[in-house]
Structure formats: structure tokens, C-alpha cells
Amino acid sequence: MTVDIDKTTGPADTPPAGPEAIKAIPVRHYGRYVSAVVALALFGAVVYAFSQGKINWDAIPDYFFDDRVLEGVGKTLLLTVLSMAIGIVGGILLAVMRLSRNPVTSTIAWFYIWFFRGTPVLVQLVVWFNLGLVFEYINLGPVYKDEWSDFMTPFLTVLLGLGLNEAAYMAEICRAGLLAVDEGQTEAAHALGMSHSKTLRRIVIPQAMRVIVPPTGNEVINMLKTTSLVSVVQYSELFRVAQDIGQTSGAPAEMLFLAAAWYLLLTSVFSVGQYYLERYYARGSSRQLPPTPWQKVRANMLSLGRPKGGMA
Amino acid sequence: MTEKLSKTDAPVKQAAVPMVKAEGVHKSYGSVEVLKGIDLEVKQGEVFCLIGPSGSGKSTFLRCINHLEKINAGRLYVDGELVGYRQKGDKLYELKDSEVALKRRDIGMVFQRFNLFPHMTAVDNVMEAPIQVRGKGRAEAKERAMALLERVGLGDKAGNYPSQLSGGQQQRVAIARALAMDPKLMLFDEPTSALDPELVGDVLDVMRDLAESGMTMVVVTHEMGFAREVGDSLVFMDGGVVVESGNPRDVLTDPQHERTKAFLSKVL
């Protein structure tokens, strides 16, 4: 019973003749060819316009792997990863606090989210940077004592600024994830004698991850780009480095394109990582895991070898 | 009031103390009163069936037994100990969550909708609580889990995720999961209501087998055949009260109460 029906087949006009395979002319989609041609033409026009502009394109490959640029990329990555780590850990903590039956913790979490979500991250960064106006010294008794400005390096400032702000957003994402897990799961775990914290850790959070990961991937990519804001507090990450080089080398616009290309490259890499992470947390939820791109390629190669089986 | 804490004795040992004892149990959600004074006793080693129309409060009562629901009035005892509270003199003290959890270890529960952990394989579902709650080693827990899955007829499905199992298979894994904690009491909340008719039999077979091993079981069910065949006692509930109780064979064949007659005439 191998009836080969093409995906794009319209209503078959030949009646189903037992085991004989259907051979029908597929519907032609002329609109697709037309729109593809139009899109390509528009894209070509944009590329042409840029290539004719007063931009010294050669400057971009010259500086693409410049030591300063690479260092800026490294700092951008480090900042992204660390502030997201703070954001995720803080976010889970805040989400659990907000959903807790303890009115004190849930109020604290509510207040935190209200504050950090309600003020622009750029303003928060500048405030962190200037917090020395409020706290002249940092004094942890016998353990640690120093001037605020020595303690709060630009790196720590931006890390806290971005991380704590992110935690507020992650908290809402995590809360949505925790709420998405069926209540029966908590009941079953409790009925087995598991404590609240074990139930959360072993049963609820792993299931919540399926809901949490996609928007978190979004947040990571957002964070990668938001790190460019920290150039305002003198931290030399990718964007700031690009601006600096642009000013000294006389190619400011070119360096902005360079920065954009690097950001695009990095976000693409993160997207791939997100795909595999989502696949990991999908285990058990769908009967068959979606194939990895590599598995897809292999499957296609195999089917090419066989005479039968749909091409494309 | 602290005779023998959380020991998984074989049932029937202390025949004097009823496994479950309810005295005037009331439960309301807001202004809706779901249980209006339930008095009943489940003896050790007994299969106790709760029947009644939906909304009669039978599931709610079952959930009160392991304190998934808090009762508003009356007293509920499991194995001689108050559920959810500690009594000192004439004052009641609420138990801490950790103390409630300690007591729940000894009470297995099977849900209408299985509630297996979907991110774990069947064998991991069964191993989870013994490892996490009883602190057993992985190897020991796994061996026991495999034996239990074998017992419910699913030894070959150990590595499957719940989504790859049929409803009847999932429910049998859920029973194995509850048994892995060596409970002294098993609660069944309509265990076959969410199943295709042809899968009901497998689950009932496992439950019958369990009853024969001497497990104390409280079963909320619509399976009158099971109640008649396996049950030792039966209670018919309606509108939050016990309408009629007794030997299942007597109650089901010769109900005394009008309401019971009306209900049974519809389901039998």
C-alpha cells in the first residue's frame, strides 16, 4: 500500500484504483516564482546601493580579526553569559518566591520585579555606576573594606546592572513555565512523600524547562545585543571597541557594519545551541524527537541513494 | 499519641487499630460544603470501595486521607494517628510540611489521570521516590522497580516514556510507582475512569492481585463488578454524606436506601 502522494497534490481527479499509485499533475504555484524573483531583485538593488555608497568595504575584513575587536567580542560574550547566568538563577529564585505561599517572599519578589522591570536598563546601568555617591565605602566588617569605586569596577557594574535587570524578566518567564506544569504532577510527587523543594527540583522545574527555554533563548540573544549599551559606562566591549577603532582609523561607519556582522554571527551560533537545548527538554513529551539537522542531512543522503522515495 | 512512627509493617498486624478512621469529617470549598460529616472505618487489610455519583464527595474524601485536602471539621485518623495535625491536650497543632510529607510516604496514591512524570521513563518514575525520599541506592531501587514493573506486567516497557505507553499501561506504572514506597495503605481515585474499556481489565487485574496480597486499599470506583468481587466493604456516598454502607455483595444486590437503588439502577 505505498501510495505516493505528493505534498502539493490538489484533489486527485483519477479515482483511487486499488493498489496502483496515483500519478497526477501537481498544482503549479506560479506566484512563488514571481515573488522569489521580486524579492531577489529588491535585495540586489539594496546590495548595489550599499556597494556604491561612500563606504570603504575593505576596512571591514582588515579589522575583522583585529586583536582589539576579538577582545571586545570576548568581553561581550563573557558579559552575556555571566549576566544571563545571574538572570536565570535569579529568575528561577524570584519565580519560586513569587509563587510561594509565604506572603513575605512573594511580596519581595513582586516588588523586585516591579522595580527592575519598570525602569530602563540604561538608567539602571548609569545608576549602578554612580552608586559611589550613596555608598562611599563598602564595609563588610572584618572581612572586606574598600572604597566603593575600587570595589565596583566597570565590569562588576555592568554585570550587576544587566544581570539584576535580566532576573526580573527571567522571573516572569520562569513563573509562566512553572504554572504551565500540570498540578497533578505536584500532587503525585507530594503523595509520594516528596518535599516542596524536591518536587520543584526533580519534577516541576525539568518540565517547566520546555516552556522556559524558547523565550530564554530569545533573552540570550537580546542580552547579547543589550550589552552594547554598557559602552556608556566606559566598558570596552564589542560596540565600544568598534566605535573607538572607527574614530582613530577614520572609518566609523565601516566599523559599525563590522560590529553588526559580529553580533549577527554570535546570535546565529546561540540559535543553534538553543535548538539542541529545546530538543533535550522535549524528551518524553513527544513520541519521536525531532531530528537534528545532521540527522536530516543523513536521511536525505540515504533517500537520494534509493530510486524510490520522494526527492526534495 | 505517638505509637509507632512510619514503619511499614505488614498489614493485618495490628488488627485492633483501624487503618483509616473518620469521625464527622467536614470539608468545604468556600461556601460549598462537599463533605457533610463522614463517619467510617477501614480495617487493616481490607478492600474498601467508595461509590456514588460525581460530586458526591468521594474523591475529596480520598484526598483528605493523605492530606492533599485539609478538612474543616471532625477527625481523620490513619493507622491511629491524626491526619495533618498533632493533638496536645485539647489543642490541635498543624503539622509542618515536612511532617506531612513523612506520613505520606506510607500512603500510596493512584490518580484518575495517572500523573506519571512525563520527563522520566517508566522505570525512572518508579525509582524516583525510593531514591529521593527513602534515600535508597540507585542499584537497589532499580532492581526493586524492575521487579514491580514485572509484577504489573510491564517488565518490557521499563525504558519507555509515559507518552509511549497506553493509558492502561501508564496506570499500571503508576501503581508500581506507588508500591515502590512500600505503603501500608493504597488510595485509588477512580483508577479506571480515564481508560478505554478494553484496557480497564488489565488495571483491575493488578488491583485484584494487590488485594489478594493483603494490602489495605481504599478505592473510589465506578467498577461495580470489581467492588462486588474484590471489595470487603462498600460505602455509597451522595451529597457529601454516607448514604449506605455494608458488604458490597449485600449493598449492590439488595440496596436498602431509595437513593442507592436509584443510583445502582443506572450504573448496573
UniProtKB/TrEMBL annotation, chain A:
Using the record, list the residue span of the signal peptide; answer none if the entry has no such feature.
none
* Record keywords: Cell membrane, Membrane, Transmembrane, Transmembrane helix, Transport
User: What PROSITE patterns does this protein map onto?
Assistant: ABC_TM1 (PS50928)
- Membrane topology term: Multi-pass membrane protein
Membrane-crossing ranges are 33-51, 77-97, 109-131, 255-277
Tell me where on the tree of life, at the top rank, the source sits.
Answer: Bacteria
Respond yes or no to whether keyword Cell membrane is given for this record. Answer: yes
What residues does the ABC transmembrane type-1 domain cover?
73-274
The record's listing under Pfam families reads: BPD_transp_1 (PF00528)
InterPro entries, per the entry: AA_ABC_Transporter_Permease, AA_ABC_transptr_permease_3TM, MetI-like, MetI-like_sf
UniProt-annotated location(s):
Cell membrane
Spell out the CDD domains in the cross-references.
TM_PBP2
What family name appears in the similarity comment? Belongs to the binding-protein-dependent transport system permease family.
| Subunit structure, as described in the record | The HisPMQJ complex is composed of two ATP-binding proteins (HisP), two transmembrane proteins (HisM and HisQ) and a solute-binding protein (HisJ). The HisPMQ-ArgT complex is composed of two ATP-binding proteins (HisP), two transmembrane proteins (HisM and HisQ) and a solute-binding protein (ArgT).
Q: State what protein this is by name.
A: Histidine/lysine/arginine/ornithine transport system permease protein HisM
Q: Which organism is it from?
A: Streptomyces pharetrae CZA14
